[in-house]
Design brief:
Order of helices and strands: HHHHHHHHHHHH
Radius of gyration: 18 Å
Largest sheet: none
Shape: globular
Structural class: mainly alpha
Strand content: under 5%
Helix content: over 70%
Oligomer: single chain
Number of domains: 1
């Protein structure tokens, strides 16, 4: 694959992931959040296990442990995301959650007791200012500030997921780890659903189409083809493409879901996207 082809592939991957916020929010009009997660990740696990069954043979301890750890962390992250997403706009949710890329170097700096780079601090301050403006734009919603808080919790957890993924993928077989991770996410979401809201399935054709889009495009497609795309471009280039994720969610939220675009909201969008772009520019490691 050429570098140009890899860039187009990564663009498609992150557009697909960005669209998941809008589809998830739409589904919550007829399905409880945990039921969406349970059905989505159980189906994704079954499909990937069938396609990549050879990778699940002879699992070693590191691979199994890595899948279990990531499954638990991502389940926590997705619970925060889903319950926050139903209280605020999808574009706002995507932007705030993708601030996780700024939290990673701050976590590392705190762990190693070193000062983060000045560019990291600057970008974090700019992004936090953007979150403040987005919070103002959501205050007219019932429990809008609670939704912002939950999405911030999702972003903080997502930062730990990124660090954990980097560690466990080097110790085990990455494809098998990803498949096990999705199985764990589906199982844990199912348990939570059964003990809280009860398991519910899509009630009509449109709901099934949206759910299958989440399964096939956002989960299976993104899981399978992002590593392939990153194989042919540098980490710096791949990092810049991650901004497509929240940008897609923001555009889809305004254009398709008719989420209002106020001055405060637009300014918040610009500040967070600017922070992510500045941080990612020529920045392989924090």
């Amino acid at each position: 694959m050429s570098k140009t082809g890899a860039k187009f592939l990564l663009t498609a991957v992150f557009i697909a992931r960005g669209s998941s916020f809008l589809f998830s929010k739409s589904l919550m009009g007829s399905m409880p959040p945990m039921s969406i997660l349970a059905v989505r990740f159980i189906l994704a696990f079954l499909i990937l296990a069938l396609v990549f069954h050879k990778n699940l043979r002879n699992l070693d301890g590191a691979t199994l442990r890595g899948g279990l750890i990531l499954g638990l962390l991502y389940t926590i992250c997705m619970i925060f995301e889903m319950y926050g997403l139903r209280l605020v706009d999808s574009g706002v949710s995507a932007l705030i959650e993708n601030m996780a890329i700024l939290f990673v170097p701050l976590y590392v700096a705190a762990w190693t007791r070193t000062m983060p780079k000045r560019k990291t601090i600057f970008c974090a301050v700019v992004a936090i200012a953007g979150v403040g403006l987005l919070s103002l734009s959501q205050m007219s919603f019932d429990n809008g500030l609670l939704g912002i808080f939950l999405i911030i919790c999702a972003a903080l957890t997502y930062g730990f997921c990124i660090i954990a993924t980097d560690k466990v993928s080097k110790e085990g077989e990455p494809v098998a780890i990803g498949i096990i991770q999705m199985g764990v996410m589906g199982f844990l979401s199912l348990i939570v659903a059964l003990f809280t809201e009860g398991l519910a399935l899509p009630s009509g054709q449109n709901q099934w189409i949206m759910l299958l889009f989440l399964v096939l495009i956002c989960s299976c497609f993104g899981f399978t083809f992002q590593p392939m795309g990153q194989k042919y471009v540098s980490a710096e280039v791949a990092a810049v493409f991650t901004v497509i994720n929240p940008l897609t969610a923001s555009i889809m939220g305004v254009v398709i879901a008719h989420e209002g675009l106020t001055l405060a909201k637009g300014a918040g969008y610009v500040l967070i996207l600017l922070a992510l772009l500045i941080y990612n520019k020529n920045n392989h490691s924090a």
